[in-house]
Every structure is written in structure tokens, then in C-alpha cells.
Amino acid sequence: MGTALYQPQSGLLTVQYQPDETTRLVENPPRFTWIPAQLEEDCYVLQISEDGQFQAERTLTFAPIPYNFYTPDRVLAPGTYYWRYALWDGGKQQSEWSVARRFVVPEGLPATALPARENRYAQAQEEHPRLWLRGAEEVARFRAKVKADPIGSGWQPFYEKSVLPWTAREPIPAPQPYPNNQRTAPLWRSMYIACQEALYAIRHLSMAGVILEDEALLGKAKAWLLHVAAWDADGATSRDYNDEAAFRIAGALAWGYDWLYGELSEEERDAVRGELLRRTQQVAVHVIERSKIHQVPYDSHAVRSLSSVLVPCSIAMLHEEPQAREWLDYTMEYYWTLYTPWGGADGGWAEGPHYWTTGMAALLEAIELMKKYTGLSLYDRPFFRKTGDFPLYCYNPNTSTRTSFGDNSTLGEAISTKVGYNIRQYAGVTGNGWYQWYYEKVKDLDTDADSKFYNYGWWDFRFDDLLYLHDYPAVEAVEPKDAEPVKWFRDVGWVAMHHRMEDPDEQIMLLTKASEYGSVSHSHADQGAFHIHAYGEPLAVETGYYVAFNSSMHLRWRRQTVSKNSILIDGKGQFGDIDKALNMAASGRVEEVRREKTYSYVRMNATNAYMENVPYMKRYVREIYFVRNSYFVVVDSVDLSEPGRVNWLFHTLYEMNVKGQTFQVNGRKASMEGRFVFSSSGDLTLSQTDEFVGVDPQEIEGLTRHWHLTATTPQAGSHRIAALLVPKRKAESGKYVSYFVDDQGFGYNLYCTDNGATQKIEIAKAF
């Protein structure tokens, strides 16, 4: 036996020790995670016992476990349990046991066990193809379906628009390195789009050739495949040079090798499989050995590459390359245990809806490939039953894409059609008519989807339709008239307030957040910030443009608090630079959400988000009231250890009318009046500008300016600020909410009156 197992304190960026007494289990069996005993290779034994003494007859033992996470292959009876782990090597325990942790399994949880490695692929055939359709028998059935109904099956549009264009194209040259190896956004984008075209050509020509038994198509597909397989795997399309290009080429080789297997000579199979193995290994080494997403899971691209590379490539090579099984095992265990690091049982996605879209697009394809090939499905896990709610409430088709959080390459445009395709998949899985409504709304709004780089370079909608129409029944769309008026995604700290979600002319929406993820990855320094969309108009927005990741617009404006409807302290905001540890530490927390008869309410604590830049911040709490589905009251409470000024920020697309303690937004369909009805430190000084401070002027040349209001308090150690925000239809220019404030000694009461109804809002007194 070795020395006591090293158990460091869990850091913000590492996986946690789970489960324990505080864990609210949502599925059975629990998912077990622990901090590794050392950074390099480990192997473990895990015990789960009905008593803390781990008596043999009441204890389950699992070994060997190659990584610091595990999902058992069986459910547990409801009750109290204990678990512990130790190092394992050569069939023996190599260290003392870890601390035993207690957890409780309640009744009624969904059963989501993962079969053990030794019998996980009992249904996985050796015959090709394996990706989507399984073997010659299923191909023959689908061939008959296509002949019987080429339109209803989705085949005709796929064949005409996604297959035939590639018959007239010669294989494209291999992308070359950047000039002087200096990456720029346009060159990077053009390179990965070229690789996406290679994927389209190989995948679509191969499938069409096999299904139609067309020798010309098969010959063209084979020519493309052998051409791309000859590209330098260590060159410009390698994982370490351009990972997005590498993902696409690996996927192209996997689909081509799998579907053209019967058309390739033994020598050609070996050559293609050798390149496929090499490219897959590049990704696997980065994911498992370098990035170690099982220890530090917040690597967005590495996590996504499980779906886009390791799943299709490993399935294509299973039974033929031993490493393929190791990679597929790792991926499936990650999905069943750790996925997703960006959310939880409520279905939220901390990076925001755009990266929900890209991550989910790759994942859904991977889920379907795994389910069809192995018979194992992720869809019973709680996250996958609920994650369609995230875009429904936080990226609603009736609201502008400017009213959501995080990086977004579709910023300022209609919601990407792919969001709708993703949520349609969940409509098929769950039968949820609201999800189908979302899909149909988005598809109607985004009429030229194929022409946009963020679609063409990422996915093909005819391919999506072909697979979906074959695998899932039609679901009837249902308007979300009964949607929750206030929806709290506890897993990521997002809160959405909605009125009349289904009607764009009547809808009012506020979205806010205070997240334990802080500003990590594609999140921003926006704890406590909010968006407002009303009557078909974005009124309170995040300003700026998605020029490119790491552009000056991205780093100095979009990621920073200065672009949010939030506050600064003496001109300084939350930590928004790129440093993962500090990003996670710059977190927020939703403390309370409730729905009362006449209002919805959220209280958020964003103190930690400011501590790096404002060390004299003692406490910052923001409360938001949505009163009578009509107007908002925003109450900010700031306590400092030394006197300071609060800069209250508001952003919109239009120049505002600013007068005294009021500002007015005049949009095309709606307007909004803002009034500071209370400030404990005295009247605020209001000003506005249309400048993007710190942004390279060349990046925004010719782009529409946006407007930014700053309302600054006098200097004080504590501040209490109440702002009244009243959205109006254009026809309601006379709408007004009256108010008065009284002093109760222990605090203040704000009374707001609208149409004869009065709402009392308490404001803590500033001492």
C-alpha cells in the first residue's frame, strides 16, 4: 500500500468531488468525479457501499477505471450510500482509500446507467457503412424509400442542392499556411470553409453513390476522398495549426472511408484509414493528454471535438484500429458523466446561445451516430430532456439576437436557422410542440440562411433534413402560450422574464444573469446585466459587433462590462480579460427568483465579479422587478470600503433624449422611458456617446453606431439607485408610470402606480 491518497482542494477550473451530502441527484446512477491523484496517468478503483464501513456484502467495486470520472453500469436502489476511491495498478489497490463521501439516492430518478466497457458494443456490427445507416440491409431499405418518395424522404432537395453541385467541381487544392504563419480572421475562416466544402463533397457524393448505386457518383466521391487523404496531416489542416480545419478533414475522411469501404482496394483502405487514424490521434492527444478535459473541462473546442471528430472517426475505425475503441470509450464515458461542463439539469448553457448552437449541432449528430450504431442513447439524461428550453426562453425567435449574452457571430441578425434545426431534434425526441413552433418560426425568419458564412461553413440543412425525416416522426407545432413568466436556469444563473412570448407584437422580455461561470470562455463580464425587448423592438441591448474572436472589438468592448447594461465603479468594471482562473472567479450568483401575483422578481449578487478590478467593493446586489407585465424597476445596492462613484450604464441602438434624471429611447416599433427615481447619494449626471472606446476604427468602418448612456453618482461609500424603465408601443406615447418614495427609517419604499394600481418596492437604506 502507498501513502494516503493525495486529495487537494478542488479549484474553480477543475472537476469537483461529486456526489456528496449537498448534491441534489437528478439521475440514477450518480455520476462520480474526483480530483486526480497526480496530473499524469492514473488508474482507479471505486467502491459504493450501503454503509460507511464498506462491508464486502454491501459494497460494489469497480476497477480498473482509467480516469477520474465514472458512471456505473447499474442503477442504485433509493437510499443512503457512501463512496470512496483509490489508485489501482496491475489488478491491485496501490494507495490508501480516499475520504468516504455520503450521498442519498431519492426515488423516481431517470435510469441512465452506462454499460461497462466489456459489453458496451454488443450491437456494434463490423459491416460498413456504420455512420447513420447500418450496413447493406438498412441501405437497401432506405434506397427503396427514396425511390418511393423522393420528396417526402428529403432525398430530392438533398440530391439536387447538396450532391449535384460537387459533381461539377474538381477536388480543391490543400489549404496553404498563412503568409508568414500569421493568422488573420478572414484567412482562418476561408481555410475552414474550404475544408467544410471537402467534407460536403466526400460525405454527400459517397452517400448518394451508394444509395443510388451510381458508378459515376462513386467514382467522383472516391477521387475526392483519395485527394484529401493525401493532404499533409501535419500541415495547414493539422489540429495544432487550424483546429477547425482539422475537425472537418477528419470528419470527411471518416464518412468517405465508411461509405466507400466497398469501393476501395485493400491498399486504398489502408492509406485512407492510416490518414484518418493519424488525424484522429492528433485530436485525441490534445483532448485527453494535453487539454485533459476530464480534469479541467472548460476548453470549448476540445469538448466539441469529441462530437465532430472522436465519435464519427472512432465508429468508422472500430474493430479495425484498437485505439478507436479507447477513444470511443473515453468519449462515451465523458458524455455520460461529465457532459456538459457548460450546464446542468435545467438545460442551460453558460457560454450563451450561439455556442449552445455550435456545440449542440455537433453533439446531436454524434448522439445519433452513437445511438444508431451502438443502441445507446444520451437522450434520457435530464440535461438533454430540458436543454431545448434554453433557446426557447433565452434566445426567443421573436426577439433580436442583440438581446442575449456571450460571443455571437450572428450578432445583429436574425437567429440562425441552425438553432431551429437543433431544437427540432429535441421536438422529435420529446414530442414537445413548443420546440417545433420555435423551429418553424426561425425557419420562416431566416430566408437566406445558406448564403451566410456561419451556416455554409458549418452545416448543410438538406443533409440535416434527410437524416431527421428518416429518423423521427412529424411533431405538431404548439404556440407557447403557457410559457413560464419567469424562467430560472439555476445551472448557469440565467433568468428570463416573458409576457406573451408567442406574439411578437405584444411580447415583452427581460433577460438577465449572474453566473458561477463568470467570464470564462465565450462568456463576458456581464454579471447582473440585462436586456429588454418589447413590442418587436430591442430596447436595452449589448452594443458592438462580432468582428472576430480576439479582435479589438471583441477584447476591449464586447467582453467588457462597458458594453453592458450594468455598472462600473469609478470607471472600472468586472474582470473581462482572458485569464481562465480570474474569469471563473469573477462570478455572480442569483440569490432569489419568484413570481408574485402582480410582478416577477430576481435578486443577483455580482460582488465577486468586481473584486479583481475594484478591490474596495464590499457588496453589489441588483434587484429587478417586472411589474404587471408592463414595466421594470431596477434597484442597485452598492457598498464600498472607500468612497467611490457608480457609473450606471445603458445601451441601445438609437440616440436617446436625455434630460435631467430621465432618458428616452425612440425605436422604430417601440420606445422606452427611463427615469432615476431614487439615488441615496444624490442626483446622477447623465451623458451619452456613440463611440466604441478602445476599438480599432478600421474594424467598425462603415458600421452603424450604437448609443451608450452613462449616469454617474456623486462620490459615496454606499449607493442605492432605483431606475424605472417603461417600454411603450409607438401608439402609447402618453403612457406614464407615476411614483413616489418615502423614508421608513430602516429603508425606503418606492411606490409605482400604473392604471390606478400601485406596486410597493422596498429599497434597503444606505447607512
What would you note in describing this structure?
- With 767 residues, the protein is of the alpha+beta class.
- The chain is built from 18 helices and 27 strands.
- Strands 14-15-16-17-24-21-20-19 form an 8-stranded antiparallel beta sheet. Strands 2, 3, 5, 6 and 7 form a 5-stranded antiparallel beta sheet that branches. It has a 5-stranded antiparallel beta sheet with strand order 8-9-10-11-12.
- Strand 20 and strand 21 form a beta hairpin.
- Helix 5 runs antiparallel to helix 6.
- The longest helix has 28 residues.
- The radius of gyration is 28 Å and the shape is globular.
- The chain starts with 31 loop residues before the first strand and ends with a strand.
- The model has no long low-confidence stretch (mean pLDDT 94).
